[in-house]
Fold this sequence. Notes:
By secondary structure, chain A is mainly α. Chain A has 19 helices and two strands. The longest helix of chain A has 35 residues.
Amino acid sequence: MRDMTQAEPRNDPQPKILHMAPIWRGFIWAAAGFIIGDLLTVAVDPFRGNPLVTEPSAVVGWVGALVGWLLGIGGYEEVVLPLFGFPSTWVEPKNWRRYFGLSTSHKVIGIQYLFSSSSIFLVAGLDAMAIRYELMQPSLHFFTYSGQYLAAVGVHGSLMMFGVGTVAMISGLGNYFVPLMIGAKRTVFSRLSGLGHWLLPFGALTLIASPLLGYWDTGWRGYEPLAMQDPGGMVYYYLGIFAMTLSTILTSLNLAATIIFYRTRGMTWARIPLFVWGILTVSLLNLIWQPEIEMTFVMALLSKLVPWNFFDALGSVETYLSMFWLFGHPEVYIIVLPAIAMWNEMIPVMAQKNLFARDWAIIGLIFVMMLSGLVWAHHMFTNMRNSEMFPFAFFTEMISIPTGFSFMAAIGTLWKARLRLTTPSLLILMSLFNFLIGGLTGVYLADPPVNLQVHDTFFVIAHFHYTIIGGMIFTWIASMYYWLPKLSGRMYNETWGMILAVWIFIGFNGTFSQMFLVGLEGMNRWVPAYPPYLKALNYDVSLFAFFLGAGFVGHAIHIIWAWRKGPSAPENPWHAKTLEWLASSPPSEENFPGEVEVVRGFYRYDHDKPSAYIVKDQPESN
Amino acid sequence: MAEALVFAVIWLIAVIVAEIGFHRIQAHSMYYTISNQGHIALNAFNFLSSWLLPIFIFVVLLLIFVLIRFRAPDNSPKPSSVQTMRNKWYILLWVGTSFVLNIVFWLHPTAVDLETMFANWNHEQKQHPLIVNVTARQWEWIFSYPQYGIQQAVNARGQDELELPVGRPVKFFLRSEDPFHRYDVYADVIHSFWIPAFGIKEDVIPGETRTEFLIPQRVASYKTSPLVRVQCAEVCGPGHPYMEAPLYIVKAKQFHTWIAHQKSLQAHGA
Lengths: 622, 270
């Protein structure tokens, strides 16, 4: 297995005993890296008044910090040494400490991602609470400066997009469950993947720290040429997102390779589970579009530092917008594809009913993936050539067709089912409802004349929160409950699960359904102060938003409680047929006690025959 | 089959009730709309709403139906008694409907409305429209009326304002530049010229000149509806929330009085 490149791996006679937790060493090395990079830069490129931190020095210092951080959390022993032909001296602890350093186990990495992503969700969520508190009054009363509010909006959006939306289900659940679901014992690039996780907290901290360099005010899209005249915080927006998207790229590379090459015997393409299809399509999207936005950000960063005039009146402003949305629209499908795949993963299990029209559900995922690159300019109806509206309106409307296939399969499965009403199935039904609203309001936005009125208003904010929170976050929580017995061997409390599900459903719909009205009534985006006639609705929205926020915290507390103290769960509590339920709960280091051989598809409930067997005492293979 | 029939009947009744309800309020679905352009948007909005309502009700009703009718009495893992994996009529109907609906939506309202919009613009172009030069800077809207030699329309306190005669086509020229800092290439950013009551917005982009046509249809001001205002809709820095200007739509006679007043203000160096 690991004998190809490394001379003497883990069993080195003198393993390195770290006296410090890798994460602390990472912090110290990162600080050292920052100071070295920063001071070198200000020495070479001093600025008038000789400040110790300038925009260029913050960038070089950041690169130094990133290198220090990645080496410090274990990259030095586990990646650099083997790269130069030395044996790796890295020893993964066997206890909880392994979660606080570089790990090559896909399950540890998955949980690291889930933890990081949940923490980012908390921070960005508190940020949202601050935003909603500000908007309870029509004038600045909480934030002290408009730029401060806008920086909060930008940090909220960027963290949620790049630290939660593209991470929780893909890097978190994907890393943990994809290998299990295809019967693999490990992933292809496990070391790279282990290193990749640590880019995420680093990127998130970069974004959280960005206001220290000045309140940047472009929101999560970094529109030029405003970004060029913005304070230094803008620089950490580019770099923070760069690190977070790089983390996603590494996960996608690893998971796509794993799905293609490490499937167990009998796991043919026709038998690949729905969630795995979701992760595969989304990985391809990530591999195509995340590098595109990184390249754009490098250009924008250089344009700011040098400065060049790529994207201002002397260059081409609209090129930035197109380059941003060329990635930006696939991004929303990156977020939602694993979720809509997960609906059809869970519904057949909860209903103990054959999955209806499985091929259509998969074709839907694939076509959404392909069409998502053809619709970007509907974000630019207010600033594009009129003739260009036709094709983009066309493709934008068309993409609802393959998205609808997932609904078709879900509804076909639910019809005449015997649906067990558990917390996951309730959350899935809610997610179907929310995503339906998100999707249908998208039809309005696809129509240019309507778009020209509601673009850049709270109508749009409501629309995309319906797709992202309503579609993806609800499904993420459903998946957490669904897989909790597998992750922890324990069960949650059904009553509390249901109460909390209804809680966030009310909070969510109360918040965002009213935002449609605020938008139609003339509330534009990115404003900490607004005309007073909008106060009543905004006040109401905020109250529901706080309720929603409390509901999410409630779910987090409940899941953590169940993870640690919940009653023991049976081996296969839902009677699901996918492979992860063949492993013990939580799965062992090698996932399965032998080789897995798949003999049937996973979504048939009209017979009792098992879908796979474990073949014990298999000689070393692949 | 019986279940499908019951479902279909409930769906039909719900759709009829919802459509009747919606048609009562549809004139106000965008709150306040007083331009020809805005009415295109409003009609499109209402058309889409009344066609999407049946779909919305279908799915929501189905979810409710599932919760009531197809809910397992207990959580024991018994397989469902029906195990259908394919129903070609349902699939055909679903896929067919979604194709047809999307093509319909693209033809109408999208293509038809865009063509109407462009045709209106061509028509209004020939009707000697009132020309208003709109300059967006950080953070101010500046309105000038070249046909009347007015460089910056302001009220008695020197604050920018936009005044339009009712019923006359207007052509806006939109530019993003700072007339007080023309030497500074970094000073210009994207703004968005939005008059909520007119139902249209257009981004104002540095280095480009955009045009916008419309006909205001009613005498109105912020006092009539707060949607009657000029508002920057694209984030343009910390001053963005305050980048708004009052708009008055007045009768032709009043407009000429106002023009005369502006001329005298300008002559006295206001």
